Amino acid sequence: MALQTEFSFTLPKGYVDAEGTLHRRGTMRLATARDEIEPLRDSRVSGPDDPFLTLVVLSRVVTELGTVSEVTTREIEGLFAADLAYLQDVYGIINFGSDADIAAFVEAERAASSTRAPVDTPPPADGGDPGSASAPDDAPVMSRPSRAAIEEVPASER
After folding, report:
1. Residue 47: C-alpha distances to residues 43, 84, 130, 154 (Å)
2. What pLDDT digit, counting tens, does each position of 146-156 carry?
3. What is the rounded distance in angstroms from the CA atom of residue 46 to the CA atom of residue 69?
4. What domain range includes position 47?
5. Do residues 63 and 124 lie in contact, with contact meaning Cβ atoms separated by under 8 Å?
6. What is the pLDDT of residues 42-93, one digit of tens each?
7. Residue 151 domain-assigned (yes or no)
């Protein structure tokens, strides 16, 4: 059995780009040691407790977001708080979760994507809120595990 290194996800609310297109489906890959170390060298990150660190790490591991093929910190910064929390949970599950946690996540995403309406949509023709094009309220949503922060190894332990 091959190691799965990429995982599909569907954001609870979605990222709205500059054109007003709502992007909810995406892909996250497993993090490497470099993905957790390099952001500490980023001039925008003041240290391992800087909240911006999470944004930089997620921008490295989220490989797709709807039709946005190059996800940067700009897109991660533009997420709704619920979507940022969701991506932090996904990161924790796929990188630190047990095989059972990962299997439950994959199954929940598969079930949710088969029952939801299309999620990457252009803005409504009437100029309304693009966020209103989201999935119906009764669409299954992955239960949220307890949250674990993206943790860095202290400099003294490297």
Report:
1. 10, 20, 36, 10
2. 444 455 545 56
3. 28
4. 6-117
5. no
6. 999 999 999 999 999 999 999 999 999 899 999 999 999 999 999 999 999 9
7. no
- What torsion do the CA atoms of 117, 121, 124, 125 make, to the nearest 10 degrees? -120
| Residue 2 DSSP label | P
pTM: predicted TM-score of the whole model, two decimal places: 0.75
In a domain, 40, yes or no: yes
The total number of structural domains that make up the chain: 1
pLDDT per position as a tens digit, 23-47: 999 999 999 999 999 999 999 999 9
Scanning the structure block, which residue is given the tokens 């595990």? 145
**Tokens 């599909």 belong to residue:** 8
123 Cβ partners below 8 Å, 6+ apart? 19, 20, 21, 22, 130
